[in-house]
Amino acid sequence: MTAPSANRPATRLATRLAFLAAGFSMSCWAPLVPYARARLGVDDATLGLLLLCLGIGSVAAMPATAPLSGRHGTRPLILAGGLGMALALPALATVGSLAGMAVALLVFGASLGTLDVAMNVHAVEVESDSDRPLMSGFHGLFSVGGFCGSGGMTLLLAASMAPWVAANLSAALVLVMLALAAPRLLRKRPAGPQAAGQAAGGRAPLFVVPQGIVLLLGVLALITFLTEGALLDWGALLLTDHRGVPPTQAGLGYTLFSLSMTAGRLTGDRVVAALGSRRVMLWGGTAAIAGLALLLLAPQTPLGTVLAFAGFLLVGAGAANLVPVLFSATGRQQVMPSALAVAGMTAIGYAGMLGGPALIGFIARGWGLPAAFALLTTLMLLVPLSASRVGRIDAPANDSP
């Protein structure tokens, strides 16, 4: 049987299925959290410590995934990560002890970290062999999976289905996606020019500190993920406490942000092809800054409420394609082997997603939530300011064989 080629519709379909499975399985956990808290009989502080296990497992697995994908290819790691998430989901819905839940969350997080890095490395390979941008579409399927996972699990639980039954059904869907993707995923590829330096020194280390442009790309990803996390965890409070929006309507802000981001990613490949990565970073970052400014400056009037909600839409549209462009640039840079670079950039970015909301809370306690979002807006300025530097990575990529 002929090995799958990166520049084939079947391989692109397999990559989309990997992103869809990752977003779906990750979001299935969110509706299960209240059930887990009730089953374990813990308070919010203890639950918060337990949830850290998910982040710890994810960040710990990311650096090890890069050298493993270099040795064995991304296919076995995508399948192992997806299988781990599918097997952990029923455990998350049934485990009744703190130690057992901590282990289940560590496994779930490590599987997510492995899948996240491996599928992005695979996506970089697929996009590099194509004549058009693909990364935004791949990440768009992750967002679609998120909607389907959280929405589907919520509907099943609302229909009085037992959590363990709903979790098993969801896990079965993840396994179906993996089974469809498995024969179409790329096998291990011959070492290219970037891997030569890695191979020359023998086995790759399990962790390499991001260098040069990779460090900058990681910081930009951190800022973007931090913005997403802040809107998720603190956006509704900003609307209710400082914009006068009723609590019953505050959730609409993040919903608009999510819809705008998903639509932006599903159409993003055409946008990146038409504008180029430099303009996407420049105007996307500028739009996100403008949206955050609307959230902060909108008056407490009916028109101000409309403007605040428009700010959520604008941030989602502006930020939609920033991370996909950053992943593409990380795969094209020549400073580090692409697999190691993607792992390092992903780990830095996830640090913003995992630790950012806590940082926002710390700043809000001392100076107020608007001050925390003002700091976030200031940090976002680095994105358009770095647009030319990110865009220049295209030049060597066009010259490479």
Question: How does this model look, in words?
Answer:
The chain has 401 residues and is mainly α. The protein folds into two domains: 9-186, MFS general substrate transporter like domains (Growth Hormone, Chain: A), CATH 1.20.1250; 212-399, Growth Hormone, Chain: A (Up-down Bundle), CATH 1.20.1250.20. Helices cover 81% and strands 0% of the residues. It contains 19 helices and no strands. α14 (322-332) packs antiparallel against α15. It is globular and about 55 Å long. 50% of the residues are buried. Mean pLDDT is 84; it is low at 190-202 and 395-401.
Q: How would you describe this structure in keywords?
A:
single chain; 401 residues; Growth Hormone, Chain: A; disordered C terminus; mainly alpha; MFS; transmembrane transporter activity
Topology:
Elements: H1 9-28, H2 33-40, H3 44-72, H4 74-92, H5 98-128, H6 135-158, H7 163-181, H8 193-200, H9 212-242, H10 247-266, H11 268-275, H12 277-297, H13 302-319, H14 322-332, H15 338-367, H16 369-380, H17 382-385, H18 387-391, H19 394-399
Number of strands: 0
CATH class of the largest domain: Mainly Alpha
By helix and strand content, what is the structural category? mainly alpha
The best one-word shape is globular
Order of helices and strands: HHHHHHHHHHHHHHHHHHH
Count of DSSP H/I helices: 19
Describe, in short, the structure shown.
InterPro entries: MFS, MFS_dom, MFS_trans_sf, MFS_Transporter. One of its GO terms (cellular component) is membrane. The protein is 81% helix and 0% strand.
